[in-house]
Amino acid sequence: MLFELPPDQTLYDALLSRDHHYDGRAFVGVSTTGVFCRLTCPARKPKRENCTFFDSQAAALDAGFRPCKRCHPLSSTDPTVQKLLDALNARPAHRWTEADIAALDVDPSTARKGFKRAFGMTFLEMARQQRLALGFNALADNGSVIDAQLLAGFESGSAFRASFAKRFGMAPATFRKDALLQADFINTPIGAMIAVSDRTHLHLLEFFDRKALPTEMKRLLSMTKGTIGFGSPGPTEATKAALSDYFAGKALPTIPLALHGSAFTKSVWRALINIPAGETRSYSQLAHDIGQPNATRAVARANGANQIAILIPCHRVICADGSLTGYGGGLWRKQKLLETELKAKP
């Protein structure tokens, strides 16, 4: 992190008092509006349960929040960076290129370094992220594919469908209003997640930027023989509340989970759920826990096949020597999850 954040209640008190000491050092994402702000923002203050705090603008953007138009949390004292931010705000759906940057009399290399230094991402990455969010939100709001395409700045319908399919593993037309499975965004302090539920169970919970997400979505549809749409059924709403509590240091409640795997794989996942928060296991220890001490490699494969992140805590499995091992959401997230649980451990 760029700045070691104090407890959330301290930050919320600072938000209520518009404490300028945290200006530029902490930001708040508001789940009800989907925007993030400076703590000094003049807008009406949100309820505590709707707030997520971040140590950087990049973290808030990664979690799926848009910058507030009142307090301008992306504003910069670097005139070159600010010039490009103003250009992006004026044309959020434009498909920006380095040629566009140069046309603004800005050196692309200078822009790349300035944005990396200020926000932890390049200008082109920020622009691409905002375009994809515009398109997804349009579809989630029951907009047509053509509306989503235009909002996302794609001149070609086929290009938009290809980009969407690359991200989700399926074309926009695959999403149906009457589908039994429904997908929704969940913003967390370590990035946006996609939750897929039916009326009774959560089927998938994965980080939006995970490369394996398209494969996981296809596998889920194949296993359930169903269709998918946009929405937030009861299990998804329960998951949103559970994750909010989890990152606030509270224990995870029991969410009804649909486990799609072999009997062996399900036994591994249940063993993962039984690992207490704040503790870890090695693959060999996990194999011993399920009564199959010689199945270490098979346990590792089952661990990697988990499609319900955090709630089935595969992040609690580490190497026998105590070092971190692979995690589909990224090792930095695994480290953050383990740190979160250690801090909350009584």
Class by SSE composition: alpha/beta
CATH topology of the largest domain: Arc Repressor Mutant, subunit A
Provide mean pLDDT, rounded: 83
Order of strands, widest sheet = 3-1-2-4
CATH superfamily of the largest domain: Winged helix-like DNA-binding domain superfamily/Winged helix DNA-binding domain
Strand content: 5-15%
Number of strands: 10
Largest sheet: 4 strands, mixed
What's the number of structural domains? Answer: 3
**Overall geometric form:** globular
Which regions have little confidence, pLDDT < 50, spanning 5+ residues?
none
Count of DSSP-assigned helices: 14
What is the class of the largest domain in the CATH system? Mainly Alpha
Helix fraction, binned, reads 40-55%
Indicate the radius of gyration in whole angstroms.
Answer: 21 Å
CATH architecture of the largest domain: Orthogonal Bundle
What's the order of the H and E elements? HEEEHEHHHHHHEEEHEHHEHHEH
For the termini, the CA-CA separation is: 24 Å
GO molecular function: DNA-binding transcription factor activity; methylated-DNA-[protein]-cysteine S-methyltransferase activity; sequence-specific DNA binding; zinc ion binding
Cofactor: Zn(2+)
Pfam families: Ada_Zn_binding (PF02805), DNA_binding_1 (PF01035), HTH_18 (PF12833)
Binding site for Zn(2+): 37, 41, 68, 71
